[in-house]
Amino acid sequence: MRLQELLNNGEYEIIMRNILFRAKTIESNSKWVYELITKMCGKFNIVSLTGENTAYPIIKDTICQYTGVNDKNNIKIFDGDILEFTDNDGAKVLELVSWNKKTLSYNIYQNGNKQLPDDFTGFGQSSYRYEVVGNIYDNNTLLCYNHNNKT
User: Fold this and answer.
1) Euclidean distance between CA atoms 90 and 73, whole angstroms
2) pTM greater than 0.85
3) Domain positions in the chain
4) Which of 7, 8, 74, 94 has the highest Cβ tally under 10 A?
5) What is the Cα 74 distance to its own chain's centre?
6) CB-CB neighbours of 68 under 10 Å
7) Three-class SS state of 141
8) Phi then psi for 126, rounded to 5 degrees?
9) What is the pLDDT of residues 14-64, one digit of tens each?
């Protein structure tokens, strides 16, 4: 049976999702822009498909992908975000969201220490305990550990 026949019979469903990125513009007042990444004439850009349909030249090292999860305030969580986790006792811990190239998944790292990863799987069920408080590009002093220790 061909794929089209399976789809038409309702036996398979193709689920598509948009992949959202953000990055900082190369302008002196460098602001965050969101949407799709393109590479034009050897330079990276974020193309905003909403509104003005504009391509913004960006700083390549600030490209972050949306994880697909929102925090307790419904703020989108991106790679490179710093989260504040509140445990059952009310104690607060800062954690860094980062892509792990070895496991091909997102991990969270307490105080940004990439030697102590925690799996991001199942994170959605406890996202009500997390709040985005910054990111490693604008607020890297929030973390005790050097975020440049790549995994």
Assistant:
1) 17
2) no
3) 12-62, 67-151
4) 94
5) 14
6) 14
7) helix
8) -115, 15
9) 555 668 999 999 987 889 999 888 888 888 999 877 766 788 899 999 999
CA 82 → CA 12, 45, 50, 66, 99, distances in Å?
38, 24, 27, 13, 13
Residue 88 gets the label, from left (phi > 0), alpha (psi -120 to 50) or beta, of alpha
Region class of 134: left (phi > 0), else alpha (psi between -120 and 50), else beta:
left
Among 2.30.110.10, 2.30.30.290, 3.30.1490.20, 3.30.499.10, name the CATH number for the domain at 67-151: 2.30.30.290
Cβ distance 128 to 87 under 8 Å?
no
The pLDDT, as a whole number, for residue 2 is 55
Q: Is 113 exposed, middle or buried (0-12, 13-18, 19+ CB in 10 A)?
A: middle
Main-chain dihedrals φ then ψ at residue 12, nearest 5 degrees: -135, 150
How does DSSP assign 21-80, residue by residue?
Answer: EEEEBSSTT--EEEEEEEEETTEEEEEE-STT-EEEEB-GGG-EEEEEEE-TTSPEEETT
